User: Which sequence fits this backbone?
């Protein structure tokens, strides 16, 4: 199946710093990517929809100025957590659709565990 | 977006067949049903996808009745490594429509 690569897999940072997470579709083009956040023992929560060449669409309650999304190419979307605080510590997961055949499957990256000290 | 309801958890012994049922009463005509498996600290892994009737691949089968208001993921002869959370998602597979996750089913396989 299609591969979505996400980096870094784990990052530890000090409070107040910014962290960038990359999401790449390795063998297909993705005009749309999705970013999710997952807290321990909970389900994935959709944060935003990343659209290539345009602004991201954020879910209600997600601060767009805190979680900056850039989708500059058909294979790369980045999520930057600005001025991170301990409450931003979470597992962040990106996903992208492989627009093959008649219906599209959603594939996920391996996730990024963010720990803010 | 169609809402899904699954059992919170299930237990099974190794070698048994496990069936996880998902309810999605307000599924739309264009919606597909997709199941994902997630291990701790990993992204969800695609298992199977279907629209109606039965779909089978090398790891699972998906049974969808005619009214499509529910679906059942069938895992044959589970092993300890199948211990994971299984999510049933319903939604359009085209364009920029995201898939919204429900709570999932935590499957524990016991030796």
Assistant:
């Amino acid at each position: 199946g299609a591969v979505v690569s996400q980096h870094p897999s784990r990052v530890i940072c000090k409070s107040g710093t910014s962290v960038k997470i990359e999401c790449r579709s390795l063998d297909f083009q993705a005009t749309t990517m999705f970013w999710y956040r997952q807290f321990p023992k909970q389900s994935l929560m959709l944060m935003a929809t990343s659209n290539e060449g345009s602004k991201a669409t954020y879910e209600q309650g997600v601060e767009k100025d805190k979680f900056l999304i850039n989708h500059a190419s058909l294979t790369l979307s980045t999520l930057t957590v600005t001025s991170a605080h301990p409450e931003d510590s979470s597992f962040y997961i990106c996903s992208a659709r492989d627009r093959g055949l008649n219906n599209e499957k959603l594939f996920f990256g391996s996730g990024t565990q963010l720990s803010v000290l | 977006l169609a809402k899904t309801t699954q059992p919170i958890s299930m237990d099974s012994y190794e070698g048994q067949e496990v069936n996880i049922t998902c309810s999605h009463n307000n599924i739309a005509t264009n919606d597909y049903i997709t199941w994902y498996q997630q291990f701790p600290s990993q992204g969800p892994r695609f298992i199977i996808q279907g629209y109606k009737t039965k779909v089978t691949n090398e790891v699972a089968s998906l049974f969808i009745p005619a009214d499509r208001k529910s679906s059942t993921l069938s895992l044959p002869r589970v092993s300890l490594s199948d211990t994971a959370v299984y999510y049933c998602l319903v939604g359009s597979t085209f364009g920029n429509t995201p898939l919204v996750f429900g709570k999932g089913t935590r499957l524990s396989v016991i030796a």
Summary: The first strand of chain A starts at residue 4 and ends at 7. The mean pLDDT of chain A is 90. Residues 70 and 111 of chain A are 17 Å apart (CA to CA).
